[in-house]
């Protein structure tokens, strides 16, 4: 795994043009997905792992089943498979094994530059992880790679994942072990998914160290962003219309961005 330290705003902007040239199609295009985290020391953990710890495998199905009971009225069509329930639940804050990624480095930078507690903005470095989808595809079992090859794709849809696993979490876990994970493109269930250019990695229950797995891949990059430029980079992203109002369409986003814009940084005024 490659580690790149970002000390200036201009160095961070290099993420935006990180696109190799495709000679056949005459375009600049990559197949990377990005994940921003506000503290470089945070491990890559799913919400299920953070919530349930070592009991995640025992409790996962109970969480999904109970969510389904109460979600059926709101979204009956999404409850026809375990993966659809999982995506819907993740979208609404349910602890799941899905880990959020984005095709947009700007969206990843937004999450890396946004703290729940703004006093921490200049207290620690942030990070953006970049993973290469075709690189991860190499780590999948033959059956999973062949399905993608037949579809001329590198990412799974819900229907494909449901087909190859038969809707069984246990089959997926047994197939993957700790040496692979699928990248899943969710359906556009609302504008937030569209705006965030959302993708998920489906972390198998046997993979207890996502960081360690990615460190063994060929093209993964971890950008460590200096705490000294976080406020400046946050302001630059605002100028590009990458802010809470875009990330969370509706009044929730408006409220978040207004709160941050009027945050008083001067300690003498607090």
Number of helices: 14
Q: Can you count the beta strands?
A: 9
**N- to C-terminal separation?**
42 Å
Mean of residue pLDDT? 93
Biggest sheet, open or closed, and with what strands and sense? 4 strands, mixed
Net shape: globular
> Roughly what percent helix?
40-55%
Structural class: alpha+beta
Q: Kindly report the spatial arrangement of strands forming the biggest sheet.
A: 1-9-6-4
Q: What are the low-pLDDT stretches, counting only 5+ consecutive residues below 50? A: none
Report the order of strands and helices. EHEEEHHHEHEHHHHEHEHEHHH
Strand residue percentage = 5-15%
If you compute it from the alpha carbons, what radius of gyration comes out, rounded to the nearest whole angstrom? 19 Å
In words, what does this structure look like?
- The chain has 270 residues and is of the alpha+beta class.
- The chain contains 14 helices and 9 strands.
- It has a 4-stranded mixed beta sheet with strand order 1-9-6-4.
- Strand 2 and strand 3 (27-28) form a beta hairpin.
- The longest helix has 16 residues, at 56-71.
- The model has no long low-confidence stretch (mean pLDDT 93).
């Amino acid at each position: 795994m490659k580690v790149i330290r970002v000390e200036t705003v201009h160095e961070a902007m290099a993420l935006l043009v990180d696109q190799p040239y495709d000679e056949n199609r005459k375009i600049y295009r990559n197949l990377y997905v990005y994940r921003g985290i506000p503290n470089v020391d945070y491990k890559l953990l799913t919400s299920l792992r953070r919530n349930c710890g070592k009991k995640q495998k025992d409790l996962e199905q109970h969480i999904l089943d109970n969510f389904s009971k109460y979600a059926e009225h709101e979204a009956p069509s999404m409850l026809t498979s375990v993966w659809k329930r999982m995506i819907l639940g993740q979208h609404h804050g349910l602890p799941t094994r899905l880990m959020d990624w984005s095709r947009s480095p700007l969206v990843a930078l937004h999450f890396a530059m946004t703290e729940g507690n703004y006093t921490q903005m200049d207290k620690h470095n942030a990070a953006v992880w970049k993973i290469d989808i075709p690189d991860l595809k190499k780590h999948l079992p033959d059956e999973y790679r062949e399905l993608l090859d037949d579809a001329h794709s590198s990412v799974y849809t819900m229907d494909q994942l449901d087909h190859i696993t038969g809707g069984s979490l246990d089959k997926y876990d047994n197939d993957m072990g700790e040496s692979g994970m699928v990248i899943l493109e969710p359906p556009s269930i609302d504008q937030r998914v569209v705006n965030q250019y959302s993708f998920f990695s489906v972390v198998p229950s046997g993979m207890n160290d996502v960081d360690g797995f990615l460190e063994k891949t060929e093209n993964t990059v971890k950008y460590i962003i200096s705490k000294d430029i976080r406020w400046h980079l946050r302001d630059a992203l605002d100028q590009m219309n990458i802010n809470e109002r875009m990330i969370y369409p509706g009044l929730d986003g408006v409220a978040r961005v207004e709160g941050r814009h009027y945050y008083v940084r001067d300690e003498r005024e607090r």
